[in-house]
Specification:
Length: 206
């Protein structure tokens, strides 16, 4: 939910990003594509980086962290097979962009960021843009957010080679695991999906 009344000067760039970076690479879920067309990525980077917001790659957001490539954000959301009524736990808030995209698709997003400055900036951004159903917690994402479990999906955007055992114990319907953002963006993206009984875990490098 974007509530800003300012002119959308990045609208054309956003639409080109969806067509050239997402659709051409096989992203097909209409809800994911609609969310990516709507969320103003330029609002989640610094003013100096805004002109590059829709470039086909990550951008720095401070604290030695990055906002993920648009394709990675879209691919993670698509692989998680989200539904409108879902409640999602995201590990690694970063800029808050991925949480905003998820909030356009599902009913509730709980997101955890270990770095206090990033968490506060993300909280301010999603609040300013009207994402009332995005809840940001500053803390250790590997511990999950059990107060709001169970979740319909858990998406780990923080860079870890494997989901920690403590997180695997968090009740969730859908999990997707991948080795890295590079693998997800490549031709072998499907190889990153590993079955865990009837579940899937979404995991990428930030």
């Amino acid at each position: 939910m974007v509530t800003s009344a300012a002119p959308d000067i990045f609208g054309d760039a956003r639409r080109r990003m969806v067509e050239r970076q997402l659709v051409r690479r096989g992203i097909a879920d209409p809800r994911v594509l609609a969310a990516m067309r709507k969320v103003p990525r330029e609002q989640f980077v610094s003013a100096e980086q805004a002109a590059f917001a829709y470039a086909d790659g990550p951008l720095p957001i401070g604290e030695a962290q990055t906002i993920s490539q648009p394709y990675i954000v879209a691919r993670m959301a698509e692989v998680a097979m989200l539904s409108p009524a879902d409640r999602v736990l995201e590990i690694g808030t970063g800029s808050g962009y991925s949480a905003a995209v998820l909030a356009e698709i599902v009913t509730e997003v709980y997101t955890i960021e270990r770095l206090p400055r990033l968490a506060e900036r993300a909280r301010q951004r999603v609040t300013a843009l009207g994402y009332r159903r995005v809840h940001v917690l500053t803390g250790d994402g590997t511990l999950g957010w059990p107060d709001h479990a169970p979740y319909d999906a858990i998406i780990a955007t923080a860079g870890r080679p494997h989901a920690p055992a403590s997180l695997l114990d968090t009740p969730a319907s859908n999990w997707v695991q991948s080795g890295s953002a590079k693998r997800l963006a490549g031709a072998q993206a499907e190889a990153g999906v590993m079955p865990r009984t009837a579940h899937r875990v979404a995991h990428q490098k930030a």
